[in-house]
Each structure stands twice: as C-alpha cells, then as structure tokens.
C-alpha cells in the first residue's frame, strides 16, 4: 500500500491553513537493532548480543503474522536517510506533522520490551524505550508526547516504571497491548491500573501483543485479513474482562483508551453484557452497575480503523451511543492502513463535534492545554 505525498519545500510545509488536529496513534521505530544500547546496562547489552529475546511466542522482531511489507508500513514512509519507516523525526515532521497541522501527536512504540519471558529484561527494555522516546522524539518536537511502555506481565515492575515517570510531561498515557498472557482484567495487571490512576494517566490498550496464545479466539488463522478483523475480537475480550473482574469498580478514576480495533462493536457488546449481567449478577457481586455504564464513563476510542457504513446516518447513530466526547482521531502513521485526516468524517458533522473529534477530546483526556 502506498500513500501519494505531494512534494514541496520544507518551508512550504509549515505554511498550512488546515485546522489543528491531534493524532493519537503514531508509531516511532528504531533505526537499528542497537539503538537502545545507550539506555541499557552492559549486562543487558551482553544478554541481547548472546541470547537475544524470547517472547511468549515466536517472530518477536515483527507482528506475529506475516505481512506483505516490513513493519506493515507505507512504502513511501521510508526515510530518505535510510532506516525503517517511522525511524526519522525529520521525515515524520515533513510527511505527517507539518502538512496535517498536528498539534498533539501521541507516540505508541511497538515491538518494545512487552511480552518477553525474562521479566527483568522486559523491564529494562521498556525503561530504555521510555528514555529513548524522550531523547529522540519528545524533547526534539514539543508536539509529540510519549506513552509509558511497561513490562506488562510483571505488574509490580510495571507500576514502578509508571511511578518513576509520573509527573513527567513528556508522557501522557500508559501503553498496554491487547494480547497478553491472561485477559486484562486479571489481578496480575491491577498494580498497573492502580499506579496509572494515582498518576492520573489513561491506559491505552493497543491491538497486537505477544501473549503466547493463538491470535484469534478459535486458533491460528490462514490469512492476515483474519488477524486484522480479529483485533476487535481481542479488544472485546479484554474489555469484558476489565468490566467483569471489577477493574472499573475498583479504580473509578481509571481511564482506558482502546486503540486500533474500531469501536462499532462497542454498543452490541455492552448490550449483551448488560443483559447477561441482569441474570447472572449474583456471580459477580463486585460489578455493582450495568457494564454499559462503566464502558461509557471510563473508555475512550481511537479511530483507524474508522467504521465506514454505507449510510452516514448509521455512523452517526453509532457515535451517538459512544459519545462524540469519547472519540480520538488517529492516523496510525506510518502503517499502510493510515487514515487521511481530511477524509475520515463525512459531511453533516457540527463544527463543535468536528473540533472535539480532531483535537478537543485528546487535549481534555491528556491534559494538554
């Protein structure tokens, strides 16, 4: 997949009349395998050289299902100076931030230290990724803010990393992935939610991950397209677990952001949860309110993939249930299924809702004035 990019001078790229937007899902990449070494102790550098990393499943160097292109990215996103897509700040500025008038960009690094069996190495790599995000990205461009990457399978270590970064305005959320060893409502992950709530940071749950389980609920698929549509199934399981294990009841100020899995499935999931909760609530007495109430109060959703029904009225009905104040625009740069900001919303959206969708909701959620 390729995105046509109109060439222009660097100076001209800053002269834009487009409305300001927030992009809540940008994927920075490392230029080389050893780019994190300056942020790692000699012990871990040696460990990586000799032993490498061992994830809960194979193919840790990329997404767990083969794709046609490296890093699932646009061919035109290769930086002119070399390196993988998403590894150059100057090219990201020229290709994404400047021409689209991105005033807030949230970084969500993938292929980090999450999903690694050696939990000490996982924690070290996640901390290194967080230092790298500051040095290479957020300190160089104030429009960019980072997500705190944590060793998700070690709740205590993850909580320590969150508390270490709390108050640092380079960071605006905690990043988890949807595929983990257990569903995200399980108690092993509660220290993460407690630390995030204390820090006032939302927890973003991005599609993908390395949990050691098949990537669909019914096993390993034959085609990549099955994995793509499976993202929503995984997020549904994660969200049901968060509600029914009582995470939202125990942490009422916790805010979750569901990233890159769509949102069209949310109403039907909530309706079904409400119905069965009415009949089986004695099994989960810690869930004190209908599940839909927790979801509508404590969950935000990024676009890309943006639901695209034939009738725009269907989309508006869907967003009405979700709430115009709960949607966050995202491009997914530099990945090939990138959403062009000017083409995402259909006609008929009020100016107030349009502004909230593109910028206001993100500023409010992340506390960016």
Automatic annotation (TrEMBL):
Keyword tRNA processing (UniProt): no
GO molecular function, one term: carboxy-lyase activity
Keywords associated with the record: Hydrolase, Lyase
Residue ranges that the Swiss-Prot or TrEMBL entry lists as coiled coil: none
Residue ranges, annotated region (Disordered): 62-89
GO BP annotation list: secondary metabolic process
Keyword Lyase: yes
Protein name: Amidohydrolase
């Amino acid at each position: 997949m390729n995105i046509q990019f109109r060439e222009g001078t660097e100076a001209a790229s800053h002269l834009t009349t487009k409305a300001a937007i927030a992009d809540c899902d940008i994927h920075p990449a490392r230029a080389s395998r050893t780019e994190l070494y300056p942020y790692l102790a000699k012990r871990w550098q040696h460990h990586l050289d000799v032993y490498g990393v061992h994830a809960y499943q194979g193919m840790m160097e990329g997404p767990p299902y083969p794709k046609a292109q490296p890093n699932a990215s646009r061919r035109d996103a290769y930086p002119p100076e070399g390196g993988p897509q998403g590894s150059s700040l100057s090219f990201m500025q020229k290709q994404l931030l400047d021409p689209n008038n991105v005033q807030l960009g949230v970084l969500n690094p993938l292929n980090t230290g999450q999903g690694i069996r050696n939990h000490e190495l996982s924690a070290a790599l996640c901390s290194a990724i967080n230092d790298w995000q500051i040095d290479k990205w957020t300190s160089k461009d104030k429009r960019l803010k980072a997500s705190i990457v944590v060793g998700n399978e070690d709740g205590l270590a993850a909580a320590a990393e969150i508390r270490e970064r709390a108050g640092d305005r380079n960071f605006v959320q905690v990043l988890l992935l949807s595929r983990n060893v257990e569903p995200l409502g399980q108690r092993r992950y509660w220290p993460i939610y407690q630390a995030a709530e204390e820090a006032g940071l939302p927890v973003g749950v991005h599609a993908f991950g390395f949990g050691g389980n098949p990537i669909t609920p019914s096993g390993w698929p034959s085609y990549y397209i099955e994995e793509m549509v499976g993202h929503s199934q995984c997020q549904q399981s994660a969200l049901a677990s968060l509600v029914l294990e009582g995470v939202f009841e125990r942490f009422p100020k916790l805010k979750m952001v569901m990233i890159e899995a769509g949102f069209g499935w949310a109403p039907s999931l909530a309706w079904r949860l409400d119905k069965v909760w009415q009949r089986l609530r004695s099994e989960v007495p810690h869930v004190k309110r209908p599940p839909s109430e927790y979801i509508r109060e404590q969950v935000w959703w990024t676009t890309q993939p943006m639901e695209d029904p034939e009738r725009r009225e269907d989309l508006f009905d869907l967003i009405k249930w979700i709430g115009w104040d709960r949607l966050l625009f995202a491009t997914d740069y530099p990945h090939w299924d990138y959403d062009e900001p000017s083409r995402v919303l259909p006609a008929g959206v009020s100016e107030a809702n349009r502004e909230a969708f593109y910028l206001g909701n993100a500023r409010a959620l992340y506390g960016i004035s």
